[in-house]
Write a structure and sequence with these properties.
Elements lengths: L1 E6 L4 H12 L4 E8 L3 H11 L3 E4 L2 H13 L5 E4 L3 H6 L6 E4 L7 H9 L3 E4 L2 H18 L2 E4 L2 H9 L9 E8 L9 H4 L4 H4 L9 H9 L1 H14 L6 E5 L5 E7 L4 E5 L5 H9 L13 H4 L13 H12 L3 H17 L7 H13 L8 H22 L2
Parallel strand pairs: 1-2, 1-5, 2-3, 3-4, 5-6, 6-7, 8-9
Antiparallel strand pairs: 8-10, 10-11
Helix pairs in contact: 2-3, 5-6, 6-11, 6-15, 10-15, 11-14, 14-16, 15-16, 15-17, 16-17
The chain binds nicotinamide-adenine-dinucleotide (NAD) and magnesium ion (MG).
Length: about 400
């Protein structure tokens, strides 16, 4: 029996994780569920999975949840505040930690799981993008293990040599759907709405990552994530557009082999893979019917229409402060776009301007430095926002 803590339980990844857990009550017990403020969703999850702890960052929402749970005579204890997620992530009673809080808000709890030597199921890509070397050092020092949840990285993990070596590996190719605006002109992109941007053609995901997919910043963040996770130099990481989202990524070997992982676009496959690794369990995802699909298409991304992808590549090559600065600027810009304060195409402008300001700073050496750099990048990005805001 493995005990699991789910950080970001009420989100898209959190709900998919609970769906897989619910299929295997003999293998998994939920130790803790953490979210920001969705107390109603968390209540339903607590009543079904009976975790020892439920965590809400927002104290008002936590009070409401506590009241509701008491009414149901639940034994789940409610914790609140900004540090509670890290507390349950590091608790001795948990084996697996699903890190699925969105954005930099997930850094502290993901780091806490690393330092406590947990098996981290890593969905929160922003944490590794902003704090790559610091996070990996915490994993090493804590004796933790990281299993990728991001579908591309999970695919790469499955296609790399099973002994953990990189023997014969030439290149990693991340596939990208191209998002909802794959074939839209640059001028039409100036006018797209948040509703259009979050309507992903293949995947159902949270709002932030859906916008990232539409700008293709998501693929850029994933290049950075792959660089850190798989210790691959930038020049051996590539992106290929594959609109059907069936091939989830590929590893190219020196002998001409190209290994790919395929499956229906449903996050329960990578989640179940990582939860059970190295075993395999049913995920609830239907088997891929290739004959029904008939064809799979591939094309190169267009850097002119998707400048965020180019910018992320530049940040990856520059290294040091650049990935952290890019991530922070992007979070600020995406929020502003979702609030209708800036245009879709301004997301790139904010990120580029913020990188120009402070992207060339030195690499943050520890967690405090990462947090400080993230904060300065947010201030710089907010300044650029106020100039662009409508
Ligand atoms: P989501 O918006 O659906 O859910 C986010 C979750 O984080 C919610 O449970 C929310 O309550 C929680 N949260 C936000 N701020 C918090 C805070 N301050 N403290 C505690 N909890 C907080 O997002 P999602 O789509 O599930 O994505 C989660 C992460 O997984 C992101 O980093 C995303 O990039 C990554 N990811 C998602 C998918 C996907 O298919 N959804 C695929 C790959 C990677
Ligand atoms: Mg992905």
């Amino acid at each position: 029996m493995k005990r699991i803590t789910i950080l970001g339980a009420t989100g898209s990844i959190g709900e998919s994780t609970l769906d897989v857990v619910g299929r295997h009550p003999d293998r998994y017990r939920v130790f803790a569920l953490a979210a920001r403020h969705s107390h109603e969703r968390l209540l339903a999850q607590c009543l079904r999975f009976e975790p020892a702890y439920a965590v809400l960052a927002d104290p008002k929402a936590a009070a409401l949840l506590r009241e509701q749970l008491a009414r149901h005579n639940s034994r789940t204890e409610v914790l609140e505040g900004p540090h509670a997620a890290a507390q349950v992530a590091a608790a001795a009673e948990t084996d697996l930690v699903m890190a699925a809080i969105v954005g930099a808000a997930g850094l502290a709890s993901t780091l806490a799981a690393a330092r406590a030597g947990k098996t981290i199921l890593l969905a929160n890509k922003e944490a590794i993008v902003m704090a790559g070397p610091v996070f990996l050092a915490a994993v090493r020092d804590g004796g933790a293990r990281v299993l990728p949840i991001d579908s591309e990285h999970n695919a790469v993990f499955q296609c790399l040599p099973a002994d953990g070596s990189r023997i014969g590996v030439r290149r990693i190719v991340l596939t990208a759907s191209g998002g909802p605006f794959r074939s839209m002109s640059e001028s039409d992109m100036e006018r797209v709405t948040p509703e259009q941007a979050v309507a992903h053609p293949n995947w159902s995901m949270g709002r932030k990552i859906s916008v990232d997919s539409a700008t293709m910043m998501n693929k850029g963040l994933e290049l950075i994530e792959a660089h850190f996770l798989f210790e691959m130099p930038p020049e051996r990481l590539d992106v290929l557009i594959h609109p059907q989202s069936i091939v989830h990524s590929m590893v190219e070997y020196v002998d001409g082999s190209l290994l790919a992982q395929l499956g229906n676009p449903d996050m329960r496959t990578p989640i179940a893979h990582a939860m059970a690794w190295p075993a395999r369990i049913d995920s609830g995802v239907s088997m891929l019917d290739l004959a029904a699909h008939g064809r799979l298409d591939f094309e190169l991304p267009d850097p002119a229409r998707f400048p965020c992808l180019r910018l992320a590549r530049e940040a990856l090559s520059a290294g040091a402060a650049a990935p952290c600065v890019l991530n922070a600027a992007n979070e600020i810009a995406v929020d502003a776009f979702l609030d209708r304060r800036i245009r879709f195409t301004d997301i790139f402008r904010v990120c580029e301007a913020t990188l120009d300001d402070i992207g060339a700073a030195g690499a943050p050496a520890d967690t405090e430095a990462v947090i400080a750099l993230d904060a300065s990048a947010r201030s710089a990005a907010n300044l650029h926002l106020s100039r662009l805001a409508r």
